[in-house]
Amino acid sequence: MELQLDADGLTAFLARDFPQVADQLRIESVAPMALRLRMLIDERHLRPGGTVSGPAMFGLADVGVYLAILAMVGPVALAVTTSCSVDFMRKPAAGADLVAEVRLLKLGRVLAVGDALIHSDGVAAPVARASLTYSIPPAMG
Amino acid sequence: MELQLDADGLTAFLARDFPQVADQLRIESVAPMALRLRMLIDERHLRPGGTVSGPAMFGLADVGVYLAILAMVGPVALAVTTSCSVDFMRKPAAGADLVAEVRLLKLGRVLAVGDALIHSDGVAAPVARASLTYSIPPAMG
Amino acid sequence: MELQLDADGLTAFLARDFPQVADQLRIESVAPMALRLRMLIDERHLRPGGTVSGPAMFGLADVGVYLAILAMVGPVALAVTTSCSVDFMRKPAAGADLVAEVRLLKLGRVLAVGDALIHSDGVAAPVARASLTYSIPPAMG
Amino acid sequence: MELQLDADGLTAFLARDFPQVADQLRIESVAPMALRLRMLIDERHLRPGGTVSGPAMFGLADVGVYLAILAMVGPVALAVTTSCSVDFMRKPAAGADLVAEVRLLKLGRVLAVGDALIHSDGVAAPVARASLTYSIPPAMG
Questions:
Q1: What is the CATH number of domain A7-135?
Q2: Closest CA of chain C from D68, distance in Å
Q3: In the predicted model, is pLDDT for residue B38 greater than 60?
Q4: What number is the ipTM of this complex?
Q5: C82 at interface of A, judged by CB pairs closer than 8 A
Q6: Ranges of each domain in chain B
Q7: DSSP codes joined into one string, B82-136
């Protein structure tokens, strides 16, 4: 399968459809069924003590898999997150961006499944892993 | 087991330790191993189209189970979220608060487990369910 | 919504379509969007040490939610399990049956979601909780 | 970290402590924080229609991550599965073994986390993914 949207196309999509998070995210690379997404950490993402909040990490994984789907099918319709599971494994490094390595594991007619491994930038041990399932509207199939 | 913190005690804890979300949340009731938490929905929680975002629902469930743990053990130490799973089942009603019914299913020496059923206020069918696991630091046991 | 299959109808379905597990399971009650299922524990379900195995508990929850779906839609087609999450919370009591209290939380056109709380018979504290998602084939809608 | 048990050591452990499943499993390779495990499919694992059952796939992932932990810490004590999430993505190929590629993502003092990607032997697209969390007894730390 070929890519329908490259990193520039996905960045333009983010800026237009998700203006509230677009400035926090950088698409570092995109390939068939895979994508690398960086979250620029600032005050909005932090909990007391300086660690990145759980919802921020969940949001990074959610947007990452969503963009990996759009890269394959194009910006034609809205996939909807139907379920997720996340394991929070380590405390993110203070002051470091988070980087999500996303794999698309299934891109079916009605369901898509992907996972993400999230690292603090420059640290090998992952801080979280997440898997997400999306329901794909009929028009998108 | 007796409650160590009632709704007023938990509200004071939220205001002091989670000032960034305290004004969005109302503890409606608390009982041994159970809690009802309301999220006052505003612009910050919305996605394009007017639905509440996935990270906002995740955050509601996460804080809800966390508060149910604190109600039982007191505000002595920080439990850490180690894993969660969420099913997003229906689109939240536009303009309605979300209400989470939280059950604490296990409160062990090292792990606590709870779940939450989330409704749009005034609508019977749930919009999401979530289950969460917390690691409890030694001092808290 | 009305029940399409009662406990007798579900039991007959189990005996015909799942002969390999039908003799281990008893449908104790069925109601709209809810079902109570007992697993008669024997040697096949045990791990060294006498506890019920994880796969056996997973199977109980999986069949329980599946039967709750069939009770609502009738034995017309095969729903397929697409995802599950399980929390194993306590060691099951030795020599006791397991009882699953199943709730159907969503029964949509393409997806169904349910959860199960599993107890050792006669013990209040749950041993496990599980949530499961099923994809419903078009003919079933 | 060095391996405490190699494939032969893990195979001997399986035969002694899990005689009921040892003959169905082959450890194909083991490395620090990684393991490849094959399930020899036979009648016991099949559902009507010839597909491998969900509980069998869950069991494969569960034993796979468990063995990856033992490879690192040695056969000193029993880690207990505390939670899992599984996505069932495709129908396994009829008559083919299943192969699980296991990664250990965290091996902490009290919790270990791993995931598994499961393929039908000889087919690239995965049939399932699973993530599992284990509680590690104090003596094991």
A1: 3.10.129.10
A2: 18
A3: yes
A4: 0.92
A5: yes
A6: 7-135
A7: EEEEEEE-SPPPTT--EEEEEEEEEE-SSEEEEEEEEEETT-SS-SEEEEEEEE-
